[in-house]
Design a protein that fits this description.
75% helix, mainly alpha
Length: 213
């Protein structure tokens, strides 16, 4: 996409896309702050992007936003759960064990392989505008990041960084210039979130607990 066409697409972005971008940025900002508001605001964002992604034949991204919606409800419950005796939050920021790292890599790999087979078939038979490898990569990384975010695992930010790096050119290519800029902003927030959570762990503000599932 040339610079003039990129700017034109940016100016012609729909109200729905602007709303999705704003709620997404606010949601990630709250996740960086370890605030439960990440989830209710994120629900608005994911529902809007289910519509936008399907409209652009990005069915992997539609699936990931449906997954986000479901996991947002689960994450909301996890982040607000409190100990019955102390009334303090049960869940704290922590690093993944070696076993959980292996599990998340397996989880990512299976989703990526499954999606690329499905999307390649859809591209060949129904939707020629589909971009199987990029859509599958962004989706699998996002699935993994969202799962780990519900458990407040530091490594979730690495998966978000990968998701954003792939999504920036993917959405610009599909004509959603504003969303491409949005993912660029999210990339910066993901890097900041990684640093913020890592700093909390090192300073003792976060407590490592055995919540690997």
């Amino acid at each position: 996409m040339s610079i003039p066409s990129f700017l034109e697409a940016l100016l012609n972005a729909s109200l729905i896309e602007y709303m999705a971008v704003i709620t997404g940025i606010v949601s990630v900002w709250y996740s960086k702050k370890e605030s439960v508001w990440v989830y209710p605001i994120g629900l608005i964002n994911t529902l809007l992007y289910i519509y936008l992604s399907a409209n652009a034949s990005l069915f992997g991204e539609s699936a990931v936003n449906l997954f986000y919606t479901i996991m947002s409800l689960y994450g909301w419950w996890c982040w607000t759960a409190r100990d019955r005796d102390t009334k303090k939050p049960i869940l704290h920021i922590s690093k993944s064990s070696s076993g959980l790292i292996a599990l998340q890599l397996l989880f990512f790999g299976l989703i990526f392989l499954g999606l690329i087979l499905i999307l390649t078939y859809l591209k060949s038979n129904f939707y020629p505008g589909t971009v199987p490898w990029a859509d599958s990569l962004a989706t699998a990384a996002a699935f993994t990041g969202m799962w780990l975010m519900t458990r407040k695992k530091l490594e979730s930010w690495y998966w978000w960084i990968l998701t954003n790096l792939v999504s920036i050119p993917l959405y610009i290519y599909k004509g959603y210039a504003l969303t491409g800029v949005y993912y660029f902003i999210l990339l910066g927030l993901a890097i900041a979130g990684l640093r913020s959570w890592d700093k909390k762990i090192k300073s003792g503000l976060a407590y490592k607990i055995n919540l690997d599932r």
